[in-house]
Each structure stands twice: as C-alpha cells, then as structure tokens.
Design goal:
InterPro entries: AlkB_hom8_N. By secondary structure, the protein is α+β, with helices and mostly antiparallel strands. Helices cover about 45% and strands about 15% of the residues. The protein starts with a strand and ends with a strand.
C-alpha cells in the first residue's frame, strides 16, 4: 500500500518491513492492519500454485495441518484389505498365509508413518481406527498371539489395539 513498506514472503510465513520516519508509523500500521489478499508467491518469476492437499511419501498433508484426510485414506485402504482378508479366510487359506497377507497389507497400512500422524489425530479419527482394529480382532483374533495384537505409537506410547 505504501512505498516505504516491503512485504517479504517465505514458504510458510510473511513479514512486513516498514520505514518509520520521524515517529510516524501510520503507513506501517495501515499495512499491517489491512485485510487484503497479497500477490501470489513467485519463485524465479513463476507463480507458486496454492493447493489444498498433497500426498507425499504416502502421507496425505492438508493445508489446515489436520490428519483427517490421511486417516480417512488409511481407513479406506485398510477396509478394502480387510474385505479381501475375509474372503481369503472363507476360502480356507492356511493361517500362515492369512498372517502374511495381514502383515503385508493391513498392518503395514495402519502403521505406515504412524509416528507422524497418530499423535495428532482427532478423537473421531482414533475411534474410527479403533473400530477397524476391532473388526480385525473379531475376524482374525484366533490367528494371532496376544503379543501381536497392538500397533504402538513409538513416540507417545499410545496403542492402536488390534
């Protein structure tokens, strides 16, 4: 708004630098208090696209920094594999094969990057994950010894009980 002010943009932040001359900071204050859209971030003359979410290394990152999109994706994938596991069990696949399928699909899905997202899940998302775990336990409880019935969040010690 004023030539004495400069806006400096960073990847995740922005700052306003203003010249306060003769104790007159009105131009700076007006710039800081104004509610307006700022120009798009540009790198080497190219405008940077603002996105709502992205999948990076298998983890869904959302612009609002919540994990709901990620846990929803995990739950959907785990449910699809759980359906397949139930079909394999009905087809009388031997227990070692069912265990291998479970560990290679469902357990790896549920525990993938768990130290990144589990701690900050909403209570609703944790409840939904726990429901998946209960479905697993009811479907496959006899296949696993008690020591293999939980995925532990390493950083917090919290359990996703299977």
């Amino acid at each position: 708004m004023h030539s004495s002010n400069h806006i400096i943009k960073f990847a995740d932040d922005m700052t306003v630098v203003g010249l306060i001359n003769k104790d007159n900071e009105s131009a700076y204050r007006e710039e800081v208090r104004a509610r307006r859209d700022h120009s798009a971030l540009a790198i080497n003359g190219s405008s940077v696209e603002i996105i709502k979410n992205i999948k990076f290394l298998g983890v869904h990152l959302a612009e609002n920094l919540t994990w709901t999109l990620n846990t929803t994706s995990i739950i959907k994938r785990a449910q699809q594999c759980l359906y397949s596991l139930r079909k394999l069990r009905k087809a009388h696949l031997p227990s070692p094969n069912l265990t291998t399928f479970y560990r290679g699909t469902i357990e790896s899905i549920l525990s993938s990057c768990i130290t990144t997202w589990f701690e900050n899940c909403t209570a609703f998302d944790r409840k939904t994950l726990q429901r998946i775990a209960e479905q697993l336990r009811s479907s496959l409880g006899s296949l696993f010894p008690p020591s293999r019935t939980s995925i532990q969040h390493a950083a917090s010690g919290k359990l996703l009980t299977l």
